[in-house]
Amino acid sequence: MVFGFGRKKQQVTFKQRVADFWEWFPTVAEQYYNAIEDGTFDDLAPEFSELVEQKLPTMCWVFGPGEGGGHSFTLTGEGVRPRQLLTQYWCQQAPEIPGWTFYSSRQPSDAERIEGMGIGISENEQVDVASFLVRTDVDAERKKIHIAAWHPAFERVPDEHHMQILFLLLDEALGEFGTEMWIGNIEVEPVEAGEHVRSLAELPEFIRQMNEYHKWEKLEPLDEFTTYKIGKQSRHRRGDVLVGTTCVPSVIDDFLENNGRLKPDPLEGTGAKLLYIRIDRSVFPGGSEAHVRGNIEDTLDDALRSQASGRILGGAMGTDFGYIDVLIFDGEASRRLTEETLNNLQLQGRSTIESFA
């Protein structure tokens, strides 16, 4: 008996998956629009779900109201930040299709729907939004609103479920990223009607008023970078890191907690990949480390975005190396573009490309 070993099948890149999706969806857009209109979409849902899973695996989707009275299609990574970056890219590539609006995260429900919304906790009782009281405290410096929230039914609901119920309703009222963008500290405790107290249904309008009054300028969570510091260095990969910035803190946390290996890989099966570039510390002159690394990041980001091939996620400085974190959409083509850009910056032989996973 002879055994043969073929070449490993090359994975379809996320860029190609997105291109395939946007080639396909316009051909069925009218059919699905009409099915939603006449209430027969449930008959098509299993087939549609299977096709979406084939083209964009690990993502979740939902239809809803769109702009101008049309319909919307939302693709979401369900709060997993790296996958949310993929849905953001997917949405940026969307063509214009009459009657359709596309979203890369779940949107807030409209005021009328929120007012009548609730979560059943028993056969005869529910946690309804209208009776859910919220006390607000505006933090103008942090551009956040701290809240204390309570529903009378919580007297009969185990404490461990209170926060889960609150977050489900906040996401409905504020959207998938709204809670993260606008809400600061959260307490679940008895709240009585009075000054600075309103129903959860009224919270979105209050936030809108505060944003308008204070003229807060806020970035979307996916475009916001946070700083982190590492107090103790190690011998593991990137173990020399002292300080960094990132828009995917969960990736950095998981990587460090798993001793220099991202397990599980949040992008497994998507055709996208999380990489980082390790650059010799000698490239960064003393006192100008952040400035030089920032210039390299900007050049790489421009190159990747110009080819719809990826984006920069942040970077870090260590005792021995500097690091730049990258999300690539187009497999080897993205990697070659990254290498070419590094070579043009005269970093050949002084930098390496490595995988988080």
Summarize the structure.
The protein has 357 residues and is α+β, with helices and mostly antiparallel strands. Helix content is 36%, strand content 25%.
Strand content: 15-25%
CATH architecture assignment of the largest domain: 2-Layer Sandwich
The SSE string, one letter per element, is HHEEHEHEEEEHHEEHEEHEHEEHE
Helix content: 25-40%
Instruction: Give the overall average pLDDT.
Output: 93
Task: Name the shape in a single word.
Answer: globular
Number of helices: 10
Uncertain runs are: 1-8
Give the helix/strand class.
alpha+beta
What is the subunit arrangement here?
A: single chain
Give the count of structural domains. 3
Question: Mind telling me the CATH class of the largest domain?
Answer: Alpha Beta
Largest sheet: 6 strands, antiparallel
Kindly provide the radius of gyration, computed on alpha-carbon positions and rounded to a whole number of angstroms.
24 Å
What order do the strands of the largest sheet run in, or round the barrel if closed?
10-11-13-14-12-15
Number of strands: 15
* End-to-end CA span: 37 Å
The CATH superfamily of the largest domain is EIF_2_alpha
What is the CATH topology classification name of the largest domain? Alpha-Beta Plaits
